[in-house]
Specification:
Chain A contains 14 helices and 18 strands. With 563 residues, chain A is of the alpha+beta class. In chain A, the strands form 4 sheets. A 6-stranded antiparallel beta sheet of chain A has the order 3-2-1-6-5-4, sandwiched between helices. In chain A, strands 8-7-11-10-9 form a 5-stranded antiparallel beta sheet. Chain A has a 5-stranded mixed beta sheet with strand order 13-15-16-18-17. In chain A, helix 4 runs antiparallel to helix 7. Chain A is elongated, with a radius of gyration of 50 Å. Chain B is of the alpha/beta class and 147 residues long. In chain B, strands 2-1-3-4-5 form a 5-stranded parallel beta sheet, sandwiched between helices. Classes of the chains: A alpha+beta (563), B alpha/beta (147).
Chain lengths: 563, 147
């Protein structure tokens, strides 16, 4: 029977290489036992998993005691036994994962915890096992030898061989199970260690791989620097993808690094830009960030070619400067040209008036009418030119900005329009207005323009105008509502464009610059302006101004002198 | 007004290059009922020559009042003003800047350079006449001028 078992598939698998001389049998089986243990110990030289080691041990027990059933299971701290592997009399692995609560047999559990080999010739005769008897016999176990496996002082597992009949276990049987268990304990521990080490290596490899990929994706260089700024490691070999520019560090950069590293070491970080290799964007610019590494005097340096963004930045700065210049030039031009236009206009209108006054008597009615048109035209043109000048001169609030009580600005705007308010029978209602940060004159002008607009475009009823403001998401929303004819939504934004007039050349109609001026004021204060209206239902002009007062650095009332 | 002195003919130096303005000013003075000797120089260089009694102006009297336009050919109004204030011979003469510019920078510069006052030429005829009348009234009747 033993020789049959030796020729079985599983035994060949385990007893490789094939054809080895069979170990001679000794009367007490000691030689076979020794050979088996040696072979089992060989498992340590392979990278076997725990269950493979267990399988080997069980198969060797099976070969040496073919009629019996070897089994290995774990015992946890709570005394629960779980079958890891069992081999039946045919050498076939049995169902795994069966569990048994050993606390049901406390005496037996205590005996196991003493780590002594348990010799049970007959389950029925062993009173300690009485609570487990049914379970054991149900599993076909009448007698067994069970060797506890320990880890340190703790009971962690059990290696056993079962017999379906009562048995008289020999010294050889006992030695076989004890020695195999002792060897198995070492092997399991070894396999676990190796497994943990493999797992650790896998984890490290995965981490390293991530790091290498990240490093490889960094569009620049990464160096590890010593406290003297010298490169300890260029880390190029750690990159999944090589750096675009793998050139060694030039002497200029070396010097710069040596100069900046102490700063990084004392404050934690430092950064600088320096000339780099020239590229498609013109002169190269290298940006270097230094970060001191914790617990040491080393610094990580991240160097990146920022030529493109530096070139872009330079371009934006240049363009911004050009725009500013153009805008200033336009303002100068508009101011100068409107001034130059005013001179001849003044001549025209003054002399037309003089002509009318001095020689008016000599003209007939038609000539006086013509003269009237000419005077009127000149006056309109003057208004236009003055408004244009005012529009062009509208500076950003900037240095003229201060805290402005909008109530006071409204007072002044209303005072300026007093005569027209009285003559039109207009009723102006007002709610308290906030204090905002801005240019006092411009804000007054803004309110004036909107009130002027409301007075100008009136229906048959006397104008009713309501001025109010309410806070809205970090800003103030002002409104000037009237009961005038309203504005067709189709005109939309166009009413805020300069010289855009929706009405005929009515008496008192303006130059068409009023709302454009209002928009310019609002936009220069960082707000928005819009109108909500429908024909026949009046119009409400809204504008927003940022809430809050000045940045602290500026004195609220300080006006820097002009340069 | 008790402080007002009897009108006496004064000498005005009008530094103005625009003949239209020259005539308008003379009309305005006439309308104000004043009889002053107005000398017109059309540019800054001539103005300085006059004030320093150089060349053909070697025996003119220094003016009682200067009316100065800012936009002048050859030498700008502000440069003329600066020169007047630099020159010990003429620096005491009151200078009224009479300009069509209301630009803040022009106004500020004029006062910094020592203008006695700055009057914007009104666009409307009546206001213009009123402005000239007021200047005349104030500078040539009310205030005491150096002799």
């Amino acid at each position: 029977m033993a020789s049959q078992q030796r020729n079985s598939r599983s035994s060949q698998e385990l007893r490789a290489p094939a054809g080895r001389t069979p170990v001679p049998r000794s009367p007490d089986g000691a030689l076979e036992r020794l050979a088996a243990l040696c072979e089992l110990a060989l498992a340590a030289t392979f990278d076997l998993r725990v269950h493979e080691v267990v399988h080997r041990a069980l198969m060797q027990l099976h070969e040496l005691r073919p009629a019996l059933r070897p089994m290995y299971g774990t015992i946890d701290a709570a005394g629960r036994f779980t079958v890891v592997r069992a081999i039946d009399a045919e050498g076939i692995p049995e169902v795994e994962g069966l569990t048994c609560d050993l606390t049901a047999a406390p005496e037996y559990l205590t005996a196991l915890r003493s780590l002594a080999l348990q010799v049970v010739d007959d389950v029925q005769a062993d009173e300690r096992l009485a609570p487990l008897r049914a379970e054991l016999e149900g599993g076909g176990t009448r007698a067994f030898l069970a060797a506890p496996l320990r880890h340190g002082e703790d009971l962690v597992g059990l290696l056993s061989i079962d017999s379906p009949q009562s048995a008289a276990w020999t010294e050889s049987d006992r030695a076989l199970v004890s020695e195999t268990a002792a060897t198995l304990a070492v092997l399991i521990q070894d396999a676990r260690l190796k497994e943990a080490r493999r797992e650790e290596a896998r984890r490290l490899r995965a981490e390293l791989d991530d790091l290498r990929r990240v490093l490889g994706a960094f569009p620049g260089r990464v160096w590890l620097l010593g406290s003297d700024g010298g490169v300890r490691d260029d880390l190029d070999r750690c990159r999944a993808r090589p750096a675009a520019d793998g050139a060694p560090i030039g002497p200029a950069l070396c010097e710069r690094l040596a100069a900046e590293v102490p700063a990084a070491l004392s404050t934690g970080t430092a950064s600088f830009e320096c000339p780099g290799p020239a590229g498609a964007h013109g002169p190269g610019v290298l940006r270097v960030e230094l970060v001191a590494l914790p617990d040491g005097d080393e610094v990580a340096a991240f160097a990146r070619d920022v030529s493109a963004s530096a070139a872009e930045r330079a371009r934006l700065l240049r363009e911004n400067g050009e725009l500013l210049q153009a805008s200033k030039e336009f303002e100068r031009f508009a101011a100068a040209s409107s001034h130059d236009l005013q001179e001849p206009l003044r001549m025209v209108s003054s002399y037309l008036q003089l002509l009318e006054r001095r020689y008016g008597g000599a003209f007939d009615a038609r000539a006086r009418e013509y003269l009237g048109f000419a005077v009127e035209g000149a006056k309109r043109m003057q208004t236009l030119v003055q408004d244009l000048l005012a529009y062009a001169r509208l500076e950003r609030p900037g240095r003229r900005a201060r805290s402005v009580a909008c109530d006071e600005a409204l007072d002044r705007a209303l005072a300026a329009l007093q005569a027209r308010i009285v003559s039109s029978g207009a009723v102006v209602t007002r709610e308290p207005l906030p204090v905002v940060w801005g240019d006092e004159e411009q804000l007054e002008q803004l309110l004036l323009q909107l009130l002027d607009n409301a007075l100008k475009f009136r229906g048959a009823e006397p104008p009713r105008i309501r001025v109010s403001a309410e806070p809205s998401e970090g800003e103030w929303r002002f409104s000037v509502a009237d009961n005038g004819p309203g504005i067709d939504a189709a005109f939309g934004e166009r009413i805020f464009a300069p010289f855009q007039r929706l009405h005929g050349r009515a008496e008192g109609a303006g130059s068409g610059i009023g709302l454009a001026l209002a928009r310019r004021v609002v936009e220069r204060h960082g707000g928005r302006i819009w109108v909500e209206s429908a024909p026949g239902r009046g119009a409400t002009f809204f504008f927003t101004l940022p809430a809050g007062t000045a940045p602290r650095s500026r004195g609220a009332r300080s006006r820097a002198p002009k340069p | 007004v008790s402080a007002r002195r009897a009108p006496r003919p004064a000498s005005i130096l009008l530094i103005e290059d625009n003949p239209g303005d020259v005539v308008l000013l003379q009309e305005a003075l006439r309308a104000a009922g004043a009889r002053h000797a107005v000398t017109v120089v059309p540019d800054g260089v001539d103005a300085l020559a006059y004030l320093r009694r150089e060349g053909r102006w070697s025996d003119v009297k220094p003016p009682d009042l200067v009316l100065l336009d800012l936009k002048l050919p050859r030498l700008d109004g502000s440069e003329v003003l600066a020169e007047i204030r630099r020159d010990p011979l003429v620096r005491a003469v009151p200078v009224v800047v009479f300009s069509s510019s209301s630009t803040e920078a022009d106004v500020k510069l004029a006062y910094e350079l020592g203008a006695n006052c700055y009057v914007v030429k009104p666009a409307d005829l009546d206001q213009y006449l009123e402005a000239v009348r007021t200047i005349e009234d104030f500078w040539l009747r009310m205030v005491l001028l150096p002799r």
